[in-house]
Each structure stands twice: as structure tokens, then as C-alpha cells.
Amino acid sequence: MSKTALVFGYHGMKNLGDDFFLSYCVSNLQKRGCRKIYVSARKGTLSEEYDENTVISFMPKRKFMKGYDKWILLFFYALNVDCLFLCAGSLFSTLPGRLLYIIFFLLKRLNPKIKIYGIGISIGPFPSKKNESQCLRVLALFDGIITRDDRSINEVKKVVPSRDLAFMAKPHFSHKKNGLLGVCLNESSSFEEEKKRVKLIAESIREANRKSKINKVLVFITCSDLQHGDSRISKVMLEELKKYQIPAEMYKHTGNWRESVSMLSVCEKIIASRLHAGFFGLLTNADIFQLNYAAKSYDFYSGLKFQSLLFSDPYKIDCSLLLGFLCAPYEGGGHNANLIERISKETSSLYADFWSCV
Predict the structure, then answer these.
(1) In Å, how far from its chain's centre is CA 282?
(2) What's the predicted TM-score (pTM) here?
(3) 124 with 151: CB under 8 angstroms?
(4) Backbone angles phi, psi at 24, to 5 degrees
(5) Of 17, 20, 54, 49, nearest to 39 (Cα)?
């Protein structure tokens, strides 16, 4: 096994899905004797679960060069590692293609031993043909790529299709009878549009509470990044619920994915626009109302027929469908267990083969 590695992605941002991805990568690298792991996170932002002497964040606390700092620092740190892992979900749709090609091309020349891998990633959709050609040129320099959806295999050759890395998490199916509802929202449109959506959801919760008692609503901030996080819209949701005198409280993800999943696990039902909040809810046997705010949500569940999972457009919500979801008896019972366990087993086998070759 390589003795030094660099893991690049959306890390240190207190995002539930990405914090799980990093934990998975670090665990596998350390099991295989990797002594130093550099992570593209700003100093002081990683979870306390990591030893700062072996898992090292290498980005400064403040940005410079208009965000290109991460790519420049990636180049300099990767000059001295054995493996570079890009584990960043939707990273390969919009990239500084020309700059990245130069960086990886030079890395291969100046550090001949380096192996470059993309794991658990999506490729595309691309905003333009130019962006597509630049990105595919970059990916041609990789030594291995495992995508997280079937669509991506049409974008680039020599790709191994798989499922999202979240399927590597162990499910904990438990039946609940507590009347707890979870709400996990993010901002993907203008703030005014987001507030309209929040008001509609809050009104549906109020109506459902009149018909079938909701004991409490837990509003989850599953990404607490200051720039791209959910804090602002979650506070609006909490205020709307309190206006209707519905018992509610806030939970904020702080980087420990196990703790956050444990909090999600107490909910009977979850309304989620955050993809991994909804999926981790499924793993803990909640009924899910998934608001598909991006193509990755459709790709994630493509071909899978989960029970207790309803989909909705994020801004054209069918209120009758949402109200029916909220008022319906909690299903539970582990009805998704066999499907999830089968996919998890297939995904684990594929990644076991991958890690054995790294």
C-alpha cells in the first residue's frame, strides 16, 4: 500500500454526505498502512475523530486567488504523495478544465510514481461542449475511476460504474413510534423562492398536525458551511413552525457523521432536499419525502424501487401528496432492508477489489 495519500473534495465544510465520504476514505487508507493523509480542508475544520498528525488539512483558513488556491495547493502537495484520490461527488461537471489538465499533466511528469483515482464521483452533465471536452481530457490522465451512477459511464471510457459511497454505511433498521418528523432543506434557488417553499411545507405540517398528531419537528442543518450551507433557510423553517405553535427544535451537523445519522434515526418521517439526509434516513428506517433539487438525486435512485420513498419537484410541490405523506401511518418494518443490503454487498465487493489494487 502507498505510504502517503492526498484526498481531494468538498471537505471540512460540515456537510453530512462529504464527511461520510472522507471518513470512509481515511479509514480504508489507514487500514492499508497509509501513514500520512493530506486533505483538501481548511485548517481547523476537520472532525475531532482525526489525528491531526496523520490526517493533515493543507488549505489556509482564508481563500486567496479567487478560489484557485485549492488547485494550486493540490499540485504542490501532490508532488510528494503516492496516491491522489478525488472523492467529491458532483465535482466533475464544472471544473477549471484547462488549469486542471496542466496540473495533472505536470504531476504525472514530475511525480512519476503517483496514481490518480476518482471514486464515488459523478461525471457531467456539462454546461457546455467545451467544458465537457476539457473535463474528459483531464479524466483520461486518471489511473482508475469508479462512478456513483450509471449515467456517468456514457461520458468517459474505462469507467467502472457503481453506487454512491453512502451505500457503504451500515443500515440500522428500527421501528419507531414517537411522532417525530425531520426536515432537512437546502438553498438551491433565490432566497425568496426558498421562503415560499418553506411556508408551503410549514402549512402542510400544520394541517397534518390537526389530523394526526406530530409530536415534534426536528429541523436539521446537514450542511453548516457558511457560504453554501443550510443555516439560513433552516432558521426560517423553525420560525414558521413556531408561528404555528408546532413544537420544533434545531439540530446542526458539526462534522461527526455518525452523530448526525444517530439524530436522523429517531425520526419516523423525513422531508429532505439534501440527498444524503434522505438516504441516511432510509438506512434508519424512516419514511422519506425527497425533494429532487438536482440531477444527482435522480441518478442516485435510478433503477431502485424503495418503498416508503416519495419524490417531488422541489419548487412545485404537490401539497396533496405531501399532506398524504404526513398523515399516512408510519410504515417502518425494514421493508427496504433486502434491497439496501444487496446493493451494499455489491458496492462493498467492487470497492474491495479497488482497494486491493491501490
Answers:
(1) 14
(2) 0.90
(3) yes
(4) -65, -45
(5) 54
